[in-house]
Write a structure and sequence with these properties.
There is one protein chain. This protein is an all-alpha fold. The chain has 6 helices and no strands. Helix 2 packs antiparallel against helix 4, helix 4 packs antiparallel against helix 5 and helix 5 packs antiparallel against helix 6. This is Lysozyme inhibitor LprI N-terminal domain-containing protein.
Length: about 130
């Protein structure tokens, strides 16, 4: 009887933790799509559940990095290209240091922070790209 109660409790806790899309503003589309796509796997997983969620972070981070790299490469004006490259390189070094430090904290702080910093880098690069002539 105790094992049945424990099993029900664990299933209900895991469904709360892994079954819902986080209600965070400005979540990258790739992350939201992955969470939706993997919802069943996260709800029914028995072990290694964090790896499913980490896959979603990795997909979003890869997509944000690819979008930022594409903006950096497409610059035609020399002054804009230098500014975008300098920003992308500088922010990458800073972001990596901060994200590495945060990854030693419990929970998903490191992964959340890394994704948010990559999203910010993309948005700022897009702003420079749109304004720079």
């Amino acid at each position: 009887m105790k094992s049945l109660i424990l099993a029900v409790l664990l299933i209900s806790i895991s469904s709360v933790c892994f079954g819902q899309v986080p209600k965070k503003p400005n979540i990258p589309e790739e992350f939201s799509n992955c969470l939706k796509r993997t919802e069943h796997d996260r709800l029914s997983c028995q072990s290694g559940c964090g790896m499913i969620l980490q896959q979603c972070y990795d997909e979003a981070n890869d997509a944000l990095t690819a979008k930022t790299d594409a903006l950096v490469k497409k610059q035609r004006s020399v002054s804009c290209a230098a500014l975008v490259k300098k920003y992308a390189d500088s922010s990458a070094r800073l972001d990596d240091g901060v994200a590495d430090d945060a990854s030693s904290q419990p929970g998903w702080l490191g992964a959340d922070l890394k994704m948010k910093l990559l999203q910010q880098r993309y948005e700022t690069t897009k702003l420079i790209d749109g304004e720079c002539k």
